Design the sequence.
């Protein structure tokens, strides 16, 4: 079992997909340069960049938290059978995610809370699944915690999806609106306490409603940062954004702030898409940070 215990909270990693996402390092991180990647190739390859190439290796995974008797999912991946015209790598997937979740001891009806750190396609896909021709909540007993700023931003009633955000075409309609219509969403803003160990906090930049989930239990600390970090290179060199950041200045400021706090508190950092061991401790190192120790998850 790919699992660790932090205080009174158990954290399990459940995989949906590991592999290329169709982007080179320069595509994914436009402000970075080839030399920076070469300097760190000895540890970035093969877990995060494919050997002898500049293609990024990414993991789509869900973090399962068990806290105070409840089962909580942090992000729900891409989902099956969804049409993504501007993100073909995610279009009409057919994965064993629910079987992988079952291997971790979680049936859909067991889930109490779903945390969507933000509303990009690869974070909300398993919010719903197709039943009798309709998209229905995958986790029928769960409350879906959704940042209101992202709910409003991606709602096509307010503005059409355009530009780089075209990759989110259809996402609100098939993965967010159905759970909202079913009365399963809770839209939060300004911060949200889940229980004595877990708290959601705004972390805007990547999207307007991007958030982080902090864990503080029994002397252990962690922060689940969603897409604030796509590659560990962004920990070493935090000024480099991904190409998907809606507010580049805000994304950089948030990354410095959250990683600085993690370094001060000796908190494990859990990005959404890191392969390898999935999470790391950090410390300040000049203008950036260094990785001081990986979480004891199985490397993939």
Sequence:
């Amino acid at each position: 079992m790919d699992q660790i215990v932090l205080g009174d909270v158990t954290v399990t990693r459940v995989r949906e997909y590991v592999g290329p996402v169709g982007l080179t390092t320069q595509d994914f991180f436009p402000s970075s340069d080839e030399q920076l990647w070469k300097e760190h190739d000895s540890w970035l390859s093969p877990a995060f960049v494919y050997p002898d190439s500049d293609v990024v290796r990414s993991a789509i995974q869900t973090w399962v938290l068990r806290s105070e008797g409840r089962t909580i999912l942090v992000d729900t991946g891409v989902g099956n059978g969804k049409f993504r015209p501007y993100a073909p790598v995610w279009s009409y997937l057919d994965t064993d995610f629910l079987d992988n979740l079952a291997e971790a001891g979680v049936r859909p009806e067991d889930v109490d809370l779903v945390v969507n750190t933000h509303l990009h396609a690869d974070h909300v896909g398993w919010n719903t699944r197709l039943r009798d021709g309709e998209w229905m909540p995958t986790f029928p007993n769960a409350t879906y915690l959704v940042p209101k700023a992202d709910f409003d931003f991606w709602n096509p009633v307010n503005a059409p999806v355009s530009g780089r955000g075209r990759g989110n075409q259809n996402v609100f309609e098939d993965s967010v609106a159905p759970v909202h219509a079913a009365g399963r969403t809770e839209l939060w803003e300004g911060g949200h306490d889940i229980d004595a160990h877990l708290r959601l906090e705004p972390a805007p930049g990547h999207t307007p409603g991007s958030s982080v989930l902090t864990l503080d239990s029994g002397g252990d600390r962690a922060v689940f940062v969603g897409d604030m970090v796509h590659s560990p290179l962004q920990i070493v060199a935090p000024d480099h954004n991904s190409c998907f950041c809606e507010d580049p200045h805000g994304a950089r400021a948030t990354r410095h702030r959250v990683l600085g706090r993690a370094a001060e508190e000796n908190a494990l950092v859990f990005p959404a898409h890191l392969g390898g061991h999935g999470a790391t401790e950090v410390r300040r190192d000049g203008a950036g940070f260094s990785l001081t120790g990986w979480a004891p998850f199985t490397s993939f």
Summary: The first helix runs from residue 25 to 28. The chain has a mean pLDDT of 95.
